[in-house]
Design brief:
about 10% strand; about 170 residues; globular; 7 helices; mainly alpha; 3-stranded parallel β-sheet; two-stranded parallel sheet
């Protein structure tokens, strides 16, 4: 599925040569994989595609997302955080042998962020190029209020730690 995902992004890069694409993953181990050789060769041949290999800078993924016009991602918490912040996100929720996985567990209002086939990814990308958004501002605001309770203020860690502290104190009282 990783190779498929990268190949599909490369197809978009070839179709839209004036759009810059940056690959960023949890690590860069795939660059050493013989199974990714064809993908790596294809990346090298495209001037509008880069692989971000900077892993010493803290929060690098967040900085890249904050500066991106569009984020295309496999299901990940970072994609959900970006959606909660109102960013343009497309989440590919399909693979070689399935057409829906994660998105079935999310509220109906979130479904517009997910694509379930390469054809749908191409359509969503083309719409973004035309309109400069994946989901309208009205829908984003609705999602922010209904799903994320307007908690996209960058203080997730603090809220989690505060809640854990309350739970810990509650356990110690009993």
């Amino acid at each position: 599925n990783d190779i498929r995902f990268r190949e599909e992004i490369l197809f978009l890069a070839e179709e839209y040569p004036k759009v810059e694409f940056i690959f960023r993953g949890k690590n860069i181990d795939w660059l050493e994989s013989k199974f990714h050789k064809a993908v790596i060769d294809r990346i090298s041949s495209l001037q509008n595609v880069k692989v971000d290999i900077e892993y010493t800078e803290k929060f690098r993924s967040y900085h890249l997302c904050a500066n991106a016009d569009l984020i295309i991602a496999n299901p990940t918490s970072l994609a959900e955080e970006c959606a909660s912040a109102g960013m343009n996100v497309i989440v590919t929720d399909y693979g070689i042998n399935y057409t829906q996985n994660i998105s079935e567990w999310f509220p109906e209002v979130m479904q517009d962020y997910y694509c379930h086939s390469f054809e749908e990814l191409k359509e969503m990308f083309a719409t973004f190029i035309q309109k400069n958004y994946v989901i309208s501002k009205e829908k984003k605001d609705n999602i922010k209020a209904e799903v994320f309770s307007n908690f996209s203020n960058g203080k997730v860690i603090e809220r989690v730690q505060d809640n854990l502290k309350l739970l810990y104190e509650e356990i110690n009282i009993k």
